[in-house]
Design brief:
Number of helices: 9
Distance between the termini: 76 Å
Structural class: alpha+beta
Bound molecules: dinuclear copper ion
Largest sheet: 5 strands, mixed
Number of strands: 10
Shape: elongated
Strand content: 15-25%
Strand order of the largest sheet: 3-2-1-5-8
Radius of gyration: 30 Å
Length: 347
């Protein structure tokens, strides 16, 4: 049977194949470029698979040939190693075949690049600006009535980007500080956002869903947390999302609750709490975006959520719920009043 060396070699190859297969399986659920969910990612994945299969075939033929020749024609007792120098058929084959392959791949790649880089076609259904900044993405929606806010500006969101299924969306990129890179793997396309330079790409999702993305250019301490959540809505749901998002954003600019909002945003509150549509993005405490719609907060210690109860709570949390992580900040009565008035609008 096989010698020890061949058996060791076979063992190593088997282990490598298993490792490769299991790592592929581990990526199956994640944002994975080979699980295309849009035409652009599909174009890239198709090209990838064509090249991958071609590479495997070439590997099998070349390595198979080497192994076959190495065993069959090797020098051994009773046999003199054969020489094939100057074999015209072989020389021509391994010159012409790789040339045809390289040329074919180049043509295919150019075709796909044409498709991928076509951000200005008449098929573009929406244009959104994305600005990278250490360390989050800000998305600006089109100047359409449905995105208009109370102060006359238009909707902007952070981290989350909302589009409709089946719409080709041009994303115009810019960067405020350093180079960032926009990438949602399963949707495809990847482009750097460079300070002082306009770049763009297009995205399109075939199915409703949430797709994970990531800044792909190292941009400092927070790079790994510079995430993108791309939400593709069915067309019928998109307006409902827009109405809710505009409502959230309006809350942040409503002049009636400005004092309370500014007070909240200037204090330590923002370190723990998130309020969508504002700069408050803390993750330690509960999100407060819709706190006024909740039946109770603080694990039931504040119930119902009304002006009196919120006032007691904000003024001295440990007095209401001993052991709570929210400390007494010794706010003035006026500060408490302003903050509570604002919290009551968070519905
Ligand atoms: Cu932004 Cu990495």
């Amino acid at each position: 049977m096989f010698s020890v060396r061949i058996r060791v070699a076979l063992g190593v190859i088997t282990a490598l194949v298993i490792a490769l297969l299991s790592s592929t399986a581990a990526f199956a659920d994640g944002p994975w470029p080979n699980d295309p969910q849009g035409p652009q990612a599909k174009a890239v994945a198709d090209l990838y698979w064509i090249m991958f299969v071609a590479a495997v075939v070439v590997l099998a033929i070349v390595d198979g040939g080497i192994i076959y020749a190495g065993i069959k024609f090797r020098e051994r007792p009773g046999h003199v190693a054969k020489q094939f120098h100057g074999n015209n058929f072989l020389e021509l084959t391994w010159t012409i075949v790789p040339t045809i392959m390289v040329v074919s791949f180049s043509v295919l790649s150019w075709q796909k690049l044409d498709f991928i880089n076509n951000t200005r076609g008449s098929d573009v259904g929406m244009v959104i600006q994305a600005q990278g900044q250490q360390w989050q993405w800000t998305f600006s929606y089109p100047h359409e009535d449905r995105f208009k806010l109370l102060d006359g500006t238009y909707l902007q969101t952070s981290e989350e980007l909302h589009i409709t299924v089946g719409t080709k969306v041009r994303v115009e990129l810019s960067a405020k500080d350093v180079i960032h890179s926009f990438w949602v793997p399963s949707i495809g396309g990847k482009k750097d956002a460079v300070p002082g330079r306009a770049t763009e790409l297009w995205i399109q999702a075939d199915k409703p869903g949430t797709y994970k993305g990531q800044c792909l250019e190292f941009c400092g301490d927070g790079h790994a947390d510079m995430l993108i959540t791309l939400v593709a809505h069915p067309v019928s749901d998109y307006d409902a999302w827009a109405v809710a998002a505009v409502k959230d954003a309006n809350r942040a600019i409503d002049p009636l609750t400005k004092v309370g909002r500014d007070t909240f945003l200037s204090l330590a509150c923002v370190g723990c709490h998130t309020v969508k549509g504002t700069t408050a993005g803390g993750k330690i405490g509960p999100e407060l975006t819709h706190v006024a719609s909740q039946k109770s907060i603080a694990g039931g210690a504040v119930s119902p959520v009304n002006e009196d109860n919120l006032t007691r709570w904000v003024k001295n949390p440990p007095a209401v719920k001993p052991g709570t992580k929210m400390p007494n900040y010794n706010l003035s009565d006026q500060q408490v009043h302003d903050i509570v008035q604002w919290l009551l609008t968070l519905k």
